[in-house]
Amino acid sequence: MSKAQRAEQPRARRSALALREAARQVIARDGFAAARVADIAQQAGRGIGTFYSHFAGKEALLEALAEDFRSELAARIQPPAEGDNDPVAHLHGTVRAFWETYTAHRPIAMALFQAALTDARFAAIWRRIRADGVRVSAARIRAAQALGHCPGLDPDRAATALCAMVEFACFEWSGGLHTAPIEDDQLVLRTLTDLMTHAIGWRDR
Amino acid sequence: MSKAQRAEQPRARRSALALREAARQVIARDGFAAARVADIAQQAGRGIGTFYSHFAGKEALLEALAEDFRSELAARIQPPAEGDNDPVAHLHGTVRAFWETYTAHRPIAMALFQAALTDARFAAIWRRIRADGVRVSAARIRAAQALGHCPGLDPDRAATALCAMVEFACFEWSGGLHTAPIEDDQLVLRTLTDLMTHAIGWRDR
Amino acid sequence: MSKAQRAEQPRARRSALALREAARQVIARDGFAAARVADIAQQAGRGIGTFYSHFAGKEALLEALAEDFRSELAARIQPPAEGDNDPVAHLHGTVRAFWETYTAHRPIAMALFQAALTDARFAAIWRRIRADGVRVSAARIRAAQALGHCPGLDPDRAATALCAMVEFACFEWSGGLHTAPIEDDQLVLRTLTDLMTHAIGWRDR
Amino acid sequence: MSKAQRAEQPRARRSALALREAARQVIARDGFAAARVADIAQQAGRGIGTFYSHFAGKEALLEALAEDFRSELAARIQPPAEGDNDPVAHLHGTVRAFWETYTAHRPIAMALFQAALTDARFAAIWRRIRADGVRVSAARIRAAQALGHCPGLDPDRAATALCAMVEFACFEWSGGLHTAPIEDDQLVLRTLTDLMTHAIGWRDR
DNA sequence: CATGAATGAGAGTTCATTCAT
DNA sequence: AATGAATGAACTCTCATTCAT
After folding, report:
1. Per-residue b/e over A60-89, b at no fewer than 16 CB within 10 Å?
2. Which pLDDT tens digit goes with each residue over D17-33?
3. At B108, phi and psi to the nearest 5?
4. Contact D34 C118 (CB under 8 A)
5. How far is A44 from chain B (nearest CA, A)?
6. Among A108, B87, B104, D106, which has the highest number of CB atoms less than 10 A from its own CB?
7. What is the C-alpha to C-alpha distance for residues D193 and D176, in angstroms, rounded to an integer?
């Protein structure tokens, strides 16, 4: 590999990374709607045009950042393994994975929701992320019902409601609407795990 | 209509009501951010100037509409009466009250949340509405704990999480992010009531 | 009619007229592509927003001005009356009508052609104007052929070519591509009338 | 291929040719104003920088392509030889030469005209091309007048008008403003030759 | 009270050109 | 000679708000 090649590929790559990071900062500070492309570029120490040579526009930027969030979530949240016989532990692990991923990507998650309220394209991305979580949750509820717990609960509806709870409780406790974030991570995890465990009727003995 | 009657419902009052109603329609159709003052005025059959003689601006309009939402909610959601001995029935009634109020004011509730993501003034309004619900919920959890249920649950945290669940499940099922609203109201009420009942460990029977 | 009505209607009207006139000046000076909306508004002594409350954009402005050109042309260029027995005089009148209308609207005619080179919407407008002229011309050629002149000439093709001649000769002589306009109007009219008369084989005795 | 041969057609020369050809294609497709340097470079399979090492810019590119057009036209359009005694045949040949050259270079001719409407530098190039044609035409009219034809016609003005006719009729029939090109070349040549012959009063026979 | 024409700051986006490699 | 990432001036268009009538 020549010197030119070594230096050239990374230059664009470094710009792209700088812009992504700057976008995260500016969006965290100002919100997505108020984040100006010019500010993001400046924060990244790049020209405006550079932004547009890496992203088709503000929307494409958010799509890219949302995809980071989605893929990390997908990597960390998995249905229980075949012979898993400690469902509460698995549930706790899942809540932890969501909480940690959510807080790491919080400004992007908020931006995505904000954009989804307005724009059908982002609504679709959001629904896709949500659907992944609902699928895992519904599988857990069906497993519980197979063991005789919580008969009569509609698994998909209940899963939707529980995902909404986890999602917006995490939203709230990670800073919510201009409030201070919770300090005690363990309390978050314990509260949500307890509520879900009980809600689906899993009697821990 | 006599002169006196006309004076009771003067032109100014009729304009204000027409503008409120028009605003609800336009916000429902376009969302708050995209709703233009000119469209609201036109929908109301009034001039733009008339809008500004009744509301200080778009923000003040939303504040007024949000106050309608909040006050209706406050009127319908009450802590259990002294000797109330059917907590599940009361919970069901509370969920029904929220669901009905929410669906009636859905566009305003969404607008309020959307604005709250961006603007601290609206965040405060939102938190106030939320706090009302959390207070009632936390009271119920403490009552349950007094009877020996769900020991060890942090009442305020759990109440927050459950309110988030109700709120965003209702959001989701009333149309969510560009999806079809659920058709079966009873399923909504039953699912949420069941989940909450179990979550706080209230053994029915 | 109340005072308010009298004053209000004209205010918008005066702005619209001021913007049209300003547009003509700026387009004449800079050409259509280089004409900035901000300059037109300033030249009219109005705000940019005012421009956009009267025209949907630069394109709509040009369409409006082009329609003025087209309608004036249509009003002044007519096929010969039934018993017209002095075709050369009528031809001369037609050329004069075109020349005078063209020079009066020259910047707009140029702008329209410039835009038509790029934009199919304007190409259609241009073709419509051209078609009106070709129709009259072709009618004249057919009349000449009925009298035995210029046998074998395709009337539509010949009419197209002659209209092209008149159009671009007028373009050229009214200032062309950064040249001085011709001073002698009579020479223009005589030259074009002679060429057309001979071209279609009308022997003036 | 030997080293010597490679040197005769060096890399730089091949790049220049590829860029010229790519430019013709992109300009034909998009028009000159909308043709982006980046697209031309890509179409040529070269880098943007390479474009700028061969042409000073977009304008210089158009100048070069226009010069190709002009020089081919100049090579094919010649005044009649001394003892030429079939002026109609010569006229027909001249029209054919223009038509064939024009259609071959049509996108460039259009681009040149488009640029000339805006830019005095290109207006000068256009006028130079036009002047060559007018000179030949005027010479022919003077020859006709020497034989007693079309007395009283201003040779230069008439030549200008007839050149305008040929030019824009060819423009029109080769595709004009987003129309289908004419299919019958012979009809073009015959119509234009007839009209010119008659216009300058050359009695055939 | 009602009106609606006027306003203009401010946003996103484009693309010819440069220059370090 | 060739490259293509970086640049930023320049442009169009939006819409909440004002105020003369």
Report:
1. ebbbbbbeebbebbeeebeebeeeeeebee
2. 999 999 999 999 999 99
3. -70, -40
4. yes
5. 23
6. A108
7. 20
Q: If you ran DSSP here, which 8-state letter would residue B9 be given?
A: S
Check residue B4 and give its pLDDT.
46
Domain with residues D58-199, CATH architecture: Orthogonal Bundle (1.10)
Report the percent of chain C where pLDDT is more than 70: 92
Answer whether C88's CB lies under 8 Å from C197's CB: yes
A17-74 tens-digit pLDDT: 999 999 999 999 999 999 999 999 999 999 999 999 999 999 999 999 999 999 999 9
Mean pLDDT, chain D, integer: 89
Distance D54 CA to E17 C1' (A): 14
Q: Which of C198, C193, C192, C146 is nearest to C172 (CA)?
A: C192
Mean pLDDT of C156-172: 95
Whether A179 contacts A78, CB under 8 Å: no
pLDDT digit string (tens) for A72-113? 999 999 887 776 667 788 899 999 999 999 999 999 999 999
Tokens of A73: 């979530």
Q: With an 8 Å Cβ cutoff, are A200 and B196 in contact? A: no
CATH code of B1-55, in short, is 1.10.10
Task: State the nearest Cα–Cα gap between B107 and chain A, in angstroms.
Answer: 11
Q: Quick one: three-class SS letters along A56-77?
A: CCHHHHHHHHHHHHHHHHHHHC
CA of D102 to C1' of F3 (A): 36
The domain over range C62-199 is classified in CATH as 3.30.950.10: no
Q: C5: how many CB neighbours lie within 10 A of its CB?
A: 9
Residue D117 burial (C-beta neighbours within 10 Å; 0-12, 13-18, 19+): buried
Work out the average pLDDT over D142-166. Answer: 89
Residue B44 DSSP one-character state: T
Nearest CA among A168, A166, A164, A185 for reference residue A176: A168
Rama region for D45: left / alpha / beta (φ>0; ψ in -120 to 50; rest): left
pLDDT of the residue at D1: 45
Can you tell me which residue has the tokens 């300009």? D27
In angstroms, the CA A168 to CA A171 distance is 5
Interchain CB distance below 8 Å, C152 and D118: no
Mean pLDDT of A199-203: 79
The whole-number pLDDT of residue A76 equals 94
What average pLDDT does this structure show over C135-150? Answer: 85
Buried b (16+ CB within 10 A) or exposed e, C95-128: bbbbbebbbebbbbbbbbbbbbbbbeebbebbbe
pLDDT-derived band at B175, boundaries 50, 70, 90: very high
Residues D101-129 have pLDDT tens digits of 999 999 999 999 999 998 899 999 999 99
| CATH class given for the domain over A59-199 | mainly alpha
**Token pair recorded at residue A74:** 């997908």
Nearest nucleotide over every DNA/RNA strand to the B59 CA, judged by C1': F16
Of B34, B127, B160, the CB nearest to A177: B127
Q: Which nucleotide is nearest to C48 (CA to C1')?
A: E8
CATH 1.10.357.10 fits B63-199, yes or no: yes
Cα A143 to Cα A190: distance, rounded to the nearest angstrom: 21
Q: Smallest Cα–Cα separation from C68: which of C9, C10, C125? A: C125
Name, in order, each residue with C-beta under 8 angstroms of D180's C-beta and a sequence gap of 6 or more: none
DSSP per position, chain D: --HHHHHHS-HHHHHHHHHHHHHHHHHHHH-TTT--HHHHHHHTT--HHHHHHH-SSHHHHHHHHHHHHHHHHHHH--PPPTT---HHHHHHHHHHHHHHHHHHHHHHHHHHHHHHTT-HHHHHHHHHHHHHHHHHHHHHHHHHHHTT-STT--HHHHHHHHHHHHHHHHHHHTTTTT-PPPS-HHHHHHHHHHHHHHHTT----
